[in-house]
Amino acid sequence: xxxxxxxENQPIRTAWDEEKEEWYFSVSDAVEVLSESKDxxxxxxxxxxxxxxxxxxxxxxxxxxxxxxxxxxxxxxxxADTKGILRIIQSIPSxxxxxxxxxxxxxxxxxxxxxxxxxxxIERALETYANKGYPAxxxxxxxxxxxxxxxxxxxxxxxxxxxxxxxAILTDEVTRAWSGMTTRQYKNLKGLKKENLRDNMSTLELxxxxxxxxxxxxxx
Length: 220
Known about the structure:
By secondary structure, the chain is of the alpha+beta class.
């Protein structure tokens, strides 16, 4: 289950492994935030050369995990669990290191709480949208679209549709049916890159999208 967490308002791509019950964090995102480097690939290369021990264990610390890239597509990128990220932090001289450690602990704690009480997930979503300044009517509509999407993907899963590419193909067809555009075209129209398309829809757009997905669920 992929997600984007915020550390000091900077996005960190994450993925939750249900089987291992472990968060995985994008290594490049974490290094970029902590090092404040404008060329994170080059920084990682130099960091590994400065720390032979880290370099020798890099293949063990990093795990290829499917996450969304800048072009909106899912690809396998280097990720690390909490223990791995903490090891990488040791090689980054940064005043943000200690706050980042606390942030990692908070993210893990919140996920455990949500597993115990799933209602907390909804409450945190409400709080996040409210803090971003979304009106109450829009927030209620957005939560309904999440439910409609879940019902649709449950049907797809029951019919053997594979997550990832096949979900993306079908989602494009649903989006095109009511908007005349693929998801990527719609995001381009709104000038979005990594941002969530639905979080940037109006109440009417959300309603039309939800109607399309609910109809697809029934037809499926």
